[in-house]
Amino acid sequence: MKLVTRSDLGWPASAAPAQATTKGVKVHYEGSPVSTKLLTDHDACIAEWKAIRKSHLANKAENYSDVAYNYAACPHGYLLEGRGIGHRTGANGNQALNQAHYAIVGLVGSSGLTEPTDAMLSAIRDGIELLRKNGAGTEIKGHRDGYATACPGGPLYDWVQKGAPRPGGESTPPTTGGGTSSSGTYTVKKGDTLSSIATAHKTTVAALVKLNSLKDADKLSIGQKLKLPGKATAPAAQPLEPFPGASFFHGGRHSPIIAAMGRRLVAEGCSRYSNGPGPNWTNADRNSYAAFQRKLGYSGSSADGIPGKASWEKLRVPKS
Ligand SMILES: [Zn+2]
Ligand SMILES: [Zn+2]
């Protein structure tokens, strides 16, 4: 666990009312636009967390005793201390719904940065486990459970509904990226994002930022040449599964292609599986594929979890 404490943040002890036990933990998101700059700048995560506390303390109507959440989780996998262990959540924790659960906020929002990274999900999981050792029961809920709100947003809520599993499990090798050897370049085209380029070339945004010494991951210009890391390139010899057509994907379908697709979705950090992936087309396949589509920048009905030709070719499913 990578914990950033209140004293690391320069904050005094929390003035929030004490609460020794709850039924469990509720997951939140920011509910406002969050800059994708957070993906490449951890200082921006710390600044974001400090700004959240500041805005809560400035809210005189609700008279917050401290930042509303026990912890926050950033895209780099840091658990940022808020009220910490043994404190009620919300403004002052005098609402029954706030008293039922401790609270962890993922630093994702309603636009911009909307998809939690696997590192963020791991950090939320760290927070859940830490709170469970300190009085939290086993429930894991989203804010929208029991209250009319969009919080914690679609991607986090999907994950909560799966029981908030630690991404990848223990057998997944770490995806650290950051290969320094360069193998070839890529010329930026209209509509590209660093994330879509990283996905298409089997690397990470962080690796591309590092290799190309990019100052601002959000600012790419058309025609700009990017170095690509060598190490992470897929083996050229592996033949790929051609797109089987959207109608191939429906309930009841059983095929090794679906298992191979699922393994690639897991490798892309888009796993929404609690079991599998396996050869049967399930809702977990669809939710995982939808996460991959969102990762590529699709939204709405273009990210409905039914594979299309363009996203399929970017997924690079090996022939089974
Ligand atoms: Zn919330
Ligand atoms: Zn961070």
Explain what this protein looks like in three dimensions.
The chain is an alpha/beta fold and 320 residues long. It folds into 3 domains: 2-161, Lysozyme-like; 182-229, Roll (Membrane-bound Lytic Murein Transglycosylase D, Chain A), CATH 3.10.350; 246-315. The protein has 10 helices and 8 strands. It has helices at 6-9, 42-58, 96-100, 118-132, 154-161, 194-200, 205-211, 256-267, 283-295, 309-315, and strands at 2-4, 22-28, 71-73, 78-81, 101-106, 136-142, 182-187, 225-229. It has a 6-stranded mixed sheet. It has a two-stranded antiparallel ribbon with strand order 7-8. Helix 8 (256-267) packs across helix 9. The longest helix has 17 residues, at 42-58. The two termini are 37 Å apart. The model is unreliable at 170-182 and 231-235 (pLDDT under 50). One zinc ion (ZN) is lined by residues 42, 45, 74-76, 78.
The CATH architecture category of the largest domain equals: 3-Layer(aba) Sandwich
Distance between the termini: 37 Å
CATH superfamily of the largest domain: Peptidoglycan recognition protein-like
Lateral strand order in the biggest sheet: 1-4-3-5-2-6
Q: Tally of extended strands?
A: 8
Bound molecules: zinc ion
Question: What is the helix/strand order?
Answer: EHEHEEHEHEHEHHEHHH
The gross shape turns out to be globular
